[in-house]
Every structure is written in C-alpha cells, then in structure tokens.
Design goal:
The strands form 20 sheets. Strands 1, 2, 3, 4, 5, 6, 7 and 12 form an 8-stranded antiparallel beta sheet that branches. Strands 13, 14, 15, 16, 17, 23 and 25 form a 7-stranded antiparallel beta sheet that branches. Strands 60-61-62-63-64-66-65 form a 7-stranded mixed barrel. About 15% of the residues lie in helices and about 35% in strands. The protein folds into 7 domains: about 30 residues; about 140 residues, Trefoil (Acidic Fibroblast Growth Factor, subunit A) (Trefoil); about 140 residues, Trefoil (Acidic Fibroblast Growth Factor, subunit A); about 130 residues, Trefoil (Trefoil (Acidic Fibroblast Growth Factor, subunit A)); about 130 residues, Trefoil (Acidic Fibroblast Growth Factor, subunit A); about 100 residues, Sandwich (Immunoglobulin-like), CATH 2.60.40; about 210 residues, no CATH class. The protein is mainly beta and about 1150 residues long. The protein starts with 15 loop residues before the first helix and ends with a helix.
Length: about 1150
C-alpha cells in the first residue's frame, strides 16, 4: 500500500459523488504517515515506555498484575509496574511485565477503536503482538497486530492514572512513546557499600547473622564479611538483587510492605519485587537504590550514623542519606563451611556414609554437623577455590563431564568459581568445564545425588555457604592415631597447673575428657573436664619438641588451637605457628605430649571422639554383658537387658512392672553359674531368683551398679542397674516376622514405604490392658526427625480403639502416631503445646498420652502416643472427600502432573480420575514452604509478596477440578489479606473466607511457644468443609509439631530469635507476617490476647499439667540410658513458658 503523501487525487470530470468517495479513501482508508514508515527494530531487553505528553510511564494500575489488570500512564517511579521486557516474536514483538511475565494485551482481542489495553497471561495471539514505528522526533508509535490500532493515552490526557487504550492512528502525542532500555550502571560483583554521609560507615548485616529477618543496618567499617554484598543484575527483569556475601540472603522489604519507613531485613531469595532494586547513577557519582516494589529509596533513618541504625525505605528525596558508594571488594571465602541447597535449606552437601574413598558418592542429606558435611575452602591467586572435605581431607573434583570424585591432591578440575546466584547464595562453577554443582532433578529428598551440570540458573545449582566450626563445641576424648586406644590424659587426674600431659589407654575418666570451645577464626581452646585447666604450650615457646601441659586459662596463643583435616586424618595446630599437637614417640601409656613441626606422622594425628559416643574405645568387661541372657520376669511381662552406647547393661522397666513379684532369670551365658550383688547363692542356667531375695528392690533407680560375678572364682563379669518409670503407660510392639520385617526393616526405608504387620499390647500405669491385638501396619513417619537415631512410627490397629482411654466413642480410631521427640530431650514440648492448644480453644486439638515403648523386646525410650492429623471422627471431623474420591474411582490408575490454575498459579494434581458429586469439601491443608514438591497434591498462592505453597494432605491425590476449586478459593482468600480485608473482585471479606478466630488462636499458640516451623516453614494446618455443611470457611487447626519450640532449635537456628523467651516471632514469620497485614486479622489477634495468655498460664501451672510433667520426668530419666542425659528437664520448659508469658503481657 502506498502512503498518503504519494497519492495524487485527480477528480477531472467525475461526478461529485465519485470525488467524495476518493477523498474518503484518501483520508480514511489509506495509511497515515505513522503507518507508512518502515517498522523499527529493537533489541530484546527490558525497557521503560514513556508517553511524550507529560513524561508519564506506561504502568500497570496499582501494580496489580493479574489477568485483566488495567494499563495506564503514571509518573515514572522505577517500580516493576513500569518495567517492560520487549522480545522479538517473528516480525512483531511481545511486551511483557519483566517480573511477572504477564503480557500487554488488547482486551478481548477487540478491533474497535477505543479497545482497552490490559495485562494478561501470554497466549501468543495477535492481541499480544506489537510493532514499533519510529517517528521523526525519535519517539515511537506502537501498533497492535490485532487491529492495526495504536497504543494511545485516552483523550490525550496529561494526568497521572490516565487510561491507555487502542485508537486509530492520528499522529498526536497521545500515541508517541519514548522507548528507553534499562541500563546496568553497576557491574555484577562483590562490594562494600558506604553511605554518602560518611565513607567510614557501611551497610552491615546485624551481628553477622545467617537468619532470615536479620536487620540490615549502618555500622562502622570493620572489613568483615557482614559488610560484603554481592550485586547481581538480572537481564530478564532489569533489576538488581543484593545478597549478603556472608549469608547468601537477599535485601528484603518485610512482608512486601509498601509503607514508608519500613525497615530492611535479609531473607531467603524469592525473587519477588520486595527483593528487586534499581540502581540509579546520580550526578555527583553516587548510587541511589530504589525498590521495584514501591519506588522508594534505601535510606539512613534521620541521617543518623549511629552504629546499628537499621535502614529503611523512604520517599525519594535525593539527599546524602539516600546516596551510596559501591566499593569493589573481592570477597575471600577461605574457611570452613556447610553447603546448603536453596531448594530446601535443611539439606546439605554430604559425602555418603562419611566415606574416605576417592569414588565416594556425593549426596544431599539432612544436616548432622558431621565432618563429612563440612568443607574447607581455600582461595587461590586467580580467585578460584578448592573444596576439601573435612572428614576425608580429599578435594572435590569433577570427572567425566558430570561426575564428582575426591582426590588427595588438587588437579585442574579441582578448582571452582563462586558466582553469586539470583536464587541466593552461589553457583559453584568448575573453572575448567564451566559446569556447576547440581542437585539431581532439583529434588531435596535425602540421599539425592549431587553431580555437575551445565549452568541453568535453577535453585538446584544455588548453594548457601554457611560458616561452621570444623569441631563443634562439646566434650571429647582426643584419640591419638599412633597407638591403640591411646587418648590425651592428665596424669593421676591431677589438678596441678604446669603438669605435662601424656597419652594413656582409654579409661573413660574425666582426666581424659576435654571441653572444646570455639573462639572464632577457626580456633578453639581445649580445657580438661576434671581440672578445668587448658591445653597449653609450655612458656608459649614456639619450638618443635616443647612440652604440652595443662595451665590456667590466659587467653594467649599458647592455648589457642585449630583443626586441620588431612587425607590420613587430621592434626591440631597451635596458633603459635606451624606446630601440631603430637607425642614424643608412638603413643603408649605415659608418653609425653609435645608440639611438633612434623604434621604428617601418626603421632600428630588425632580424632575427636564425643564423650557421649566414644565408639570402639569402650571394649571392657561391659561388652561381655551382651553374652549373658538375663531378664526380669513379673506376671506376663519379661524384660531383657538394654545396652547403652558404651555397652553397659541396664534393666529399663515399665511403670506396670511389679517389683514385688519380679524374678531375675538366667537363661544362658559363658558361665554355668553366676552370683548377683551380695547374694552368694549361684544362679545356674535356667534358674531364677526374686529381687526380694537378692535384696535389690530398693536398688531401683539407684546410681549404684549391681555386680555380676562368676560363681566359680568370684571374678567380676559385668554390672547392671535397674531403672523404672512411674505413672506412664507401656506399649509393647511385636513384629510378625522380627527377623525379616522387624524394626531394622522399617527403619531402612527413607520414604516410609517399608511396612510390616504385627501385634501391640498397651497397658496403662495402673495395669489395665487398653489394647491387646493385631496391627495391620507398622511404618516410619516424619521428615527430618526420621534422620535421628530415635525414630518416630505410625501404627494401624486391626480394629478401632480408644488408646487414650478418654471414654469418648469418637476417639476410637485405627491409625495412631508414636512421636519420638528426638529433638526435644525433655519430651515435654509437644505435650505442652497440645495442652495449650486445648486450653486456648484451637480447633481439633491433638490428644495424647506418654508411653514407654518396647519394640520386638527392646526398650526404645519415652514416646508420645497421639492422634494423627487426619479427617476422621474425633479428629478433623468434616466430610471425607478422600473417601468420596475412592468411591467413584476405585482402583483407577492416574498420573500426577503439574499445571496452573485459572489464577496462573502452579499446582499438582492427578489426571485420569473422576470427580465425586461434591468437590467443595472436605479438604485438609498444610502450609509447607519446604517439601511441597515431594507431595502428590499441592498448590501455590500469590501472597502479594512472593509465592506461598500449600499441600493438600486429604485427599492426598486429587483431580484437576478439585485442585482448581480449592487453589482458586485460596487465592481469593489471600486477595482479601493483601487488600485490607476485602477482595476487590468478589467484594467478600476475610471473614467470609476464613474463621478468623481460629486463625487468631492458632497464631497465639505459635507465638507463645515460638514454634520454629509454624506459620513459617511447615506444619500449619487448616481445613475446609463442604458448602453443604453450613460453614465452609477455612478453619485453622489442628496444632502440630512443636518439638522445635519453647527455646529449642537446631544448631543452625540458635539465635535469640528462637531461643529467648523475649521478642516477637510468629508475627514476623513467612506466613504469619502476611496474614497479619490484614487489619481484620490483626484486630482478631489483639482481641483474644489477654484471654489466651491467661488460659495459657493457668494451663502450664495447673495440676493436670504438673502431674504429666512429673511422670514424663521419670521416662526421660530412664531413656537416658539409650539417648544420653538431656541438658534440660521438663520443668525447664514450664519455666521458659512462664517467662515468655511475662514478656507477652506487656509487649505491643
């Protein structure tokens, strides 16, 4: 078609009508001047698109990026609502929001002038294809492929908020746009960032914390890693991410708050607008840091340079308080670390089985702080690093393009580059191949293999470098490698200062026990448990052969040591120089300890053996105890000996065991006749004697061991003691086939697929039989707790029973859970939480009882028998949708797939299944931000500040329609939360979607207990009944999983934010923070505060609670023979809770 400027109109002798027709064609049909020009070519990238009328930017109204969101013009503010990624699509372009990926679209694909411009999911139609026509003034007109209309500011308005539509080309400024590419003013790299107020004050991470929520502040320059920041530009979004070089966590606006004055924190990378930043160059050479979420600038509050002043977001004012200097500063990560995957931070890079072989498998495993999970990084001159495993002393090396092996000496493929990742932490990229350390399939399952793979930008290749001590604080025996069972020893258990130390054969005494305390920088002190004196180089003399002694603590280098792993073991190096703790010659009893310059001999190699688990150091007479078949029999119960980790023998008796009728039975052993205690009559094989005759009934729970001797020559054989609980029920589980399908078989399954059958007898403390029958299922349960030595189980009865003896028929069920409380040495935290849940009025509170567990004749410790969180009568008592699904699908095969719902959110569901007649309920849902991907039914929700993940626990497999129904309703609920309590589309309130009172009460339970997981990572449950039930709102509950709570946390979470009874916790948690942004939720929480605090105090100080605490204390004492003595007691938990309630009473 020819442009109008080339059309010559000749009317000649034609009629007037024909003349008018030609004029109509010329001015209305022929293309305008803008159309006539050739289409411009743009490079793919992120741009701002600004209308020339009043320099207003193309903007998503309210930053609300959902299907149908309106597009307008607005003052330029650098937010994500004005960031557009322009990409070539054939002969045209797509224009999409750079962060959300939603596309500029002609509403309804309309071809009518005035059609609205909107945002919509990509669908590859012409309504989402555009061409650029460059005008003479350098601006562009943007034409739709859908209708040949042009992007236009309605009415040529200059007002902010003016609508953008599609209109016939008219050459006006309303259709002229400046299209300017977003630039990268600061190169990717590591920086120390100083304020323009003073070059001596730096952006700093509070306390060098590794925790989410730690403050980002101003602090005096100290050249620490807490002041080093990795700056990474994302070409796909046009924004920067700023990560702590220490923690790998991102600059973050808490809860996605848009308030001015909100203080900045660090948080795990979620790549939401709350963690995206525009860096703007100022005319005086500084940088302003502007939020993609709000357009506000990073600001020093009140321009105060006081150390600890936490940075805030504030309206841009271009003062020095908002200007920064990015000082290039290469970071040295030399040191010892654990490598945590960003897929699931509970998983770390681990050498399988602690192997020291070069071909050992690399895997992901739950953190257990073993040396096999610790790595020594050493920076090379070219900036690359070697990774030495702290257990084997071998170097991580790539082989065969994707494999990993371990080598004694580093080679070319043993060097790795640390590249800051947009997912947080680092990509660990091989210097030679460019491939990255990669988690196979991105799965966080324990045991998943780790290898190398081409860089792909996923979380599977992002790792957090978590600083760690090679040797943890604790009590140890120091085992020398040049002798047999020779350990560092204080001669004659002396407490004299200046006494030379020696090696001596292991005897387990305090003179051979040493307390290690890390002091920073990889160094530690070593103090003898018996004398309280420190391991010391005599006179601080840095010379090979100098005596090592014990001496009063003096904070000198002579008492400072560090551990250096090697291929053949590891040595303990003095801070005085290149000298290792050694011996004068091969270790024997009485050989003196020295420092030596020769660090390669066995004399200089030591192994730290934990005092609570010395392993094969213990081989004395107690090992022979297992060769003797001694048991205690009373009525129908017969209890064999239990052996602790040292091999010592114990009898662990349940409360119901009658000592008055108890007989000691000798069924066999190396000796034909033995004597026990002071009883002189020999006990022959097959005979027995009462405890009364032995005079041992008073020896129960005594610290005095009972001697077993040979009746032939009175030689000592071994000792045992007798422990018994009081007021606790006893459970006896017996496998049908203990040899092939016993406890070992069950515990061999990491995913709980190993299932056995058996029988179970439950007897209460008074001797009443509660259940004595078959078990149709015995299996493991739990995630991280399953990795512990003391493991939790799930049992299924052959018939329903009320194992808790509540007297309520509704509490008769088949499936029950045995919680091990392995993280909680008091065994009280879950019990306290479930008692509080009932007192506070939370929904479907868990009922429970304490039991002593005996499995296949072996004592296993103190357990909690409790209800399973499930839909069932007496538990979560709602319609059972899972049963309804089973009824219509029977044994139908299905396939699990991932897809998106109508809101554009991800979900997982099954294909090939039919819907029941009613899919509106009941659903049992768990918030699970960590392990959702391993589940069969889950969905995601856009919270307005990042994506949250929820698992449908029941039904555990659901149809696409069920997934769509529930996930969409959940999104409607969260759209209320993020919009002040009212859904802008449905007009419904938060109270229409959710029982807010249930939310408030469950919130307070988690806040009172400072539960690590609840409202933060996982274990927060809620449910929804059918629409026909009368109340189909979301109800929060039941409460679950409180072993990490009440001042108890994993070592990686050992900050005051978890341990102290003071400070807000759940209020700042991932889910908790978002929910409390809704003023109606916050009001409900505030309304019940005093009520729940009063109820909580009455509960934990009430008689029922104290009685349970007293009985559990006896169980905890008895199980110490298996699991060690806890540093806490049950009443410590109650004391912590009372202190917590004291703080909450006045906290605002």
């Amino acid at each position: 078609m020819v442009g109008t400027d080339a059309v010559r109109i000749c009317i000649r002798k034609r009629s007037r009508g024909m003349a008018l027709l030609l004029l109509f064609i010329a001015f209305c049909v022929m293309p305008t001047q803008a159309e006539a020009k050739s289409y411009a070519e743009l490079d793919d990238g992120v741009y701002t698109i600004t209308n020339v009328i009043a320099d207003k930017s193309l903007d998503v109204a309210g930053g609300y990026c959902v299907n149908g969101s309106n597009v307008q013009v607005y003052e330029g503010n650098h937010t994500y609502a004005q960031a557009w990624r322009i990409s070539k699509k054939g002969s045209s372009y797509s224009i999409e929001n750079s962060i959300t990926g939603m596309v500029l679209d002609v509403a309804g694909g309309s071809k009518i002038a005035g059609a609205n411009a909107q945002l919509y999911d990509s669908n590859n139609t012409q309504a989402q294809r555009w061409k650029f026509v460059q005008n003479a003034d350098g601006s562009y007109s943007i034409r739709s492929d859908c209708n040949d209309l042009f992007l236009d500011v309605s009415g040529g308005s200059s007002k902010k908020g003016a609508n953008v539509c599609l209109y016939t080309s008219n050459g006006t400024k309303a259709q002229k746009w400046r299209v300017e590419r977003v630039t990268q003013p600061v190169k990717d790299g590591s920086y120390r960032i100083s304020t323009a107020l003073s070059d001596k004050k730096m952006i700093d991470l509070w306390g060098g914390s590794l925790d989410n929520g730690a403050a980002v502040q101003i602090y005096e320059d100290n050249d620490s890693l807490a002041q080093a920041w990795n700056v990474v530009f994302d070409q796909n979004t046009g924004y920067y991410s700023i990560f702590s070089a220490l923690s790998g966590r991102s600059f973050d606006i808490p809860g996605g708050s848009k308030s001015s004055g909100v203080r900045i924190q660090q948080y795990s990378s979620n790549r939401t607008p709350a963690q995206q930043w525009r860096l703007l160059q100022t005319s005086d050479g500084h940088i302003e840091v502007v939020s993609a979420l709000t357009g506000r600038a990073l600001d020093v509050p009140s321009a105060s340079l006081s150390n600890g002043n936490q940075l805030q977001m504030y309206q841009a004012n271009h003062t020095d308080a908002q200007k920064w200097t990015f000082n290039t500063s290469p970071v040295d990560h030399s040191g010892s670390f654990q490598l945590k995957t960003t897929v699931d931070e509970s998983g770390v890079l681990d050498v399988s089985g602690g192997s020291k072989d070069s071909g050992a498998a690399s895997q992901l495993w739950s953190s257990n702080l073993s040396l096999a999970q610790k790595w020594v990084l050493e920076r090379q001159d070219d900036g690359s690093y070697t990774f030495k495993n702290a257990n084997s002393g071998l170097y991580l090396t790539e082989i065969a393009k994707s494999g990993i092996e371990y080598r004694k000496e580093p080679s070319g493929y043993s060097y790795w580059i640390l590249d800051a990742s947009l997912n947080g932490g680092y990509r660990i990229k091989n210097k030679q191949s460019g491939r990255c350390i990669d988690l196979s399939g991105g799965s966080s399952a324990a045991g998943n293999s780790v290898s190398t793979y081409s860089s792909n930008g996923t979380k599977a290749q992002s790792w957090l470098l978590v600083p760690c001590n090679l040797i943890e604080n604790g009590d140890y025996y120091l085992l020398n490698q040049s002798g047999t069972r020779q350990v560092l020893d204080v001669p004659n258990a002396s407490s004299d200062g200046g006494l030379a130390l020696q090696t001596y054969v292991f005897n387990g005494s305090a003179a051979q026990q040493w307390h290690l305390e890390n002091t920073g920088g990889g160094f530690f002190t070593i103090k003898n448990i018996n004398s309280g004196l420190c391991l010391d180089v005599r006179s601080g003399r840095a010379k090979s052969g100098t005596i090592v002694q014990q001496y009063a603590e003096n904070d000198t280098k002579a008492q400072s040591w560090k551990y250096v792993p090697t291929f053949s073991g590891g040595y303990i190096q003095s801070a005085l120089g290149d000298y290792a703790l050694s011996t004068k010659r091969g270790a024997e009893s009485g050989v003196l300890a020295i420092i030596s310059i020769d660090m390669t001999t066995p004399q200089s190699e030591w192994e730290f053996r934990n005092v609570s688990n010395p392993g094969d150091l213990v081989i004395s007479h107690s090992a022979a105890a297992s060769e003797y078949n001694l048991s205690l029999r009373s009525d129908s119960l017969e209890i064999g000996m239990t052996f602790d980790r040292y091999g010592n023998a114990h009898f662990a008796l349940p409360s119901v065991f009658d000592l008055n009728t108890a007989q000691l039975v000798y069924s066999g052993g190396p000796e034909t006749s033995i004597t026990v205690g002071d009883y002189s009559v020999g006990l022959t094989v097959g005979s027995s004697v009462t405890l009364s005759d032995l005079g041992l009934t008073s020896s129960v729970n005594s610290d005095n061991p009972i001697a077993v001797r040979s009746a032939l020559d009175a030689a000592d054989l071994f000792t045992f003691d007798i422990k018994q609980t009081a007021g606790v029920a006893s459970m006896f589980i017996s496998s049908d086939d203990p040899v092939n399908y016993g406890r070992g078989y069950i515990e061999s399954s990491g995913d709980h697929t190993a299932v056995a059958t058996g029988s179970m007898k439950l007897v209460d403390a008074s001797g009443v039989s509660v259940y004595d029958g078959a078990l149709s299922q015995i299996k493991g349960r739990g995630n991280s707790t399953w990795m512990m030595d003391k493991k939790p189980y799930q049992i299924k009865l052959d018939k329903k029973a009320d194992l808790l003896e509540t007297g309520d028929k509704a509490n008769k069920n088949k499936t029950w859970v045995l919680l091990a409380n392995a993280y909680d040495g008091t065994s009280m935290r879950n019990a306290a939480a479930y008692s509080l849940a009932s007192a506070l009025g939370t929904h479907a509170p868990i009922e429970y009882r304490a039991v002593d567990l005996y499995y296949d004749g072996q004592y296993r410790g103190a357990y909690m028998l409790c209800e399973k969180v499930q839909i069932n009568s007496g538990r979560v008592d709602i319609d059972n949708l899972e049963d309804a699904n089973d009824a219509v699908n029977g044994g139908t095969s299905y396939q699990l797939v991932e897809g998106v719902n109508s809101c554009g959110n991800r979900m997982k569901y099954a294909t090939g299944l039919q819907n029941p007649s009613d899919i509106t309920g009941g659903y049992l849902i768990e918030f699970d931000q960590e392990r959702y991907v391993n589940e069969g039914a889950w969905f995601s929700v856009d919270s307005g500040n990042g994506v949250l993940y929820f698992v449908c626990k029941s039904p555990g497999v659901w149809t696409k329609d069920e997934a769509e129904y529930l996930s969409s309703r959940f999104q409607e609920f969260f759209d209320c939360i993020r919009n002040g309590g009212v859904n802008p589309e449905t007009g419904k309130t938060t109270a229409d979607y959710c029982d807010i009172d249930s939310l408030a009460r469950l919130y307070w339970l988690n806040e009172i207990t400072k539960c690590v997981d609840g409202f933060n990572y996982s274990s927060t449950y809620l449910f929804k009944n059918s629409d026909t039930s009368g109340d189909s709102r979301f109800v929060f509950g039941p409460a679950w999983d409180f072993d990490l709570a009440m001042g108890n946390a994993l070592s990686s979470q050992s900050s005051d934010s978890y341990l102290s009874p003071q400070g807000w916790h759940t209020r700042n948690a991932l889910l908790g923070f978002r929910l409390l942004q809704d003023p109606t939720v916050r009001a409900a929480v505030d309304a019940v505060k005093q009520e729940v605090l009063d109820e909580a105090r009455g509960c934990i100080n009430g008689q029922d609670y104290l009685a349970y605490e007293s009985s559990v204390a006896t169980s905890v004492n008895m199980e110490s023979i298996l699991w060690g003595v806890s540093s806490e007691s049950p009443d410590d938990v109650r004391a912590w809770l009372n202190s917590r309630l004291d703080w909450l009473e006045t906290a605002q």
